[in-house]
Amino acid sequence: xxxxxxxxxxxxxxxxxxxxxxxxxxxxxxxxxxxxxxxxxxxxxxxxxxxxxxxxxxxxxxxxxxxxxxxxxxxxxxxxxxxxxxxxxxxxxxxxxxxxxxxxxxxxxxxxxxxxxxxxxxxxxxxxxxxxxxxxxxxxxxxxxxxxxxxxxxxxxxxxxxxxxxxxxx
Length: 170
Hints:
The protein has helices spanning 15-29, 43-54, 58-81, 87-112, 138-148, 152-165; strands at 117-120, 132-135. By secondary structure, it is mainly α. It has two domains: 15-81, no CATH class; 87-165, SRF-like (3-Layer(aba) Sandwich), CATH 3.40.1810. The protein has a two-stranded antiparallel ribbon with strand order 1-2. The chain is elongated. The protein starts with 14 loop residues before the first helix and ends in a 5-residue tail after the last helix.
């Protein structure tokens, strides 16, 4: 049986990563403005924190990271499901997600022969996303041309115009 290569389960955030994040934040909060901030990538600081972590018992590690784990989990969920407030973030998220979906649909077509026609349009004029169409077989594009007298690009533009206009159909 063939399966998708997309990640379907997410890894748990480790207690070590939560502790490291918490300690870096604590150290940075104690600094004055203009001082160099601690970073996870700084090996010396990470080694100091690792020594502190290893000296703790498992119960102490759990107690020290419980609140941070909840916060990090909420941050992950917000990143995954949250609404973007900056249009450029929404644009980059849309672009990256469409690229992933397109690769997966191409693989599906290759494995099973399933034909796919996809249109992606924006619903708000503030968005930067341009109309996008994808098909796995030229016959699908020919069908759109035959049925609507528009190329897939023209059809996507008109579909976007309809979605941006705010009209509601029944």
